[in-house]
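Shape matters. As here.
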Amino acid sequence: MGNAIESVLDEPVAGAMPQTDGERRVVVNPTSGTANHTERVREIAAERGYRIEETERPGHATELAKAAAADDVCLLAVAGGDGTLHEVVHGLWEADALDRTTVAVVPVGTKNIFATNIGIRGIEHGFDVVETGARRRIDLGVAGGEPFALSCIAGLPADASVATTDELKERFGSLAFVVGGLQEVTRFDGLHIDLAAVADGEEVRWSGDALCVLVGNARRFVKEGGQADVEDGLFDVVIIEEMPTGDVVAEALIQRILGQSTEHVHHFRASDLTIERRDGGSIDFSLDGEPRMHDRLPLHVRHLTLRICVGPGYDPFR
């Protein structure tokens, strides 16, 4: 959208930032990743004056985030994976506190995709950038009234899309999610969908049978993959049409090795879209890795909504 860097920063990129005034809390998911991080997180958090809250069940991070908002906590750190971050953001969203609460990511999950995209390299670094890094306002996606930071994936089972290896992503680009789930593809009946979107101020429509629809907010599924521009007010959208298993691999190789577009993969950027199943029934979605089911799902971007601490490797215009 052509925003100057200064327009979306709470502080300049260069130089140390003043410490955040007010109470700091950290939400710790003790079961994230290899589940051996809790003691280290508690040690650093205590040294730096954080109040520590541990999750006890699925959905608890949402409750803890809402409680933090009610207590006017100014900085809320999240020691967990992408799913824990999703819950915390959801809680701040429901409490209408996104504009007054800054989120810091302390990556201890299995993949930590969001943390990697914003330049956070580990537990100590996650705490350090609160003191030395920049704070930015970034976009959030909203799917059926639920916010998401990374992506919304429709189609292939969540396990197939979320568990795709880095090696497959490097070899096959956007089709890696399908190549990684070839076993599931043989059993998958496809998505019979109507998709309507607003792209560059114009309506885009697509109807047909798809293997999956990939909607990225902070996540990009084409070219090199990785971080999308999360400050442009747009989703990166990829539709992969239904095709024989052999064609999936062939088109993946053409896209990745030859750098060419292919017949069955469509890519565009959009601020709003709706995915609807044409033949009735529901669609399986993966929202930041969390399973959801909808028969019709509207999505839109909330521009520059989430206040976040970022590391030095973060490039908003990548």
Summary: Residues 245-258 form the longest helix (14 residues).
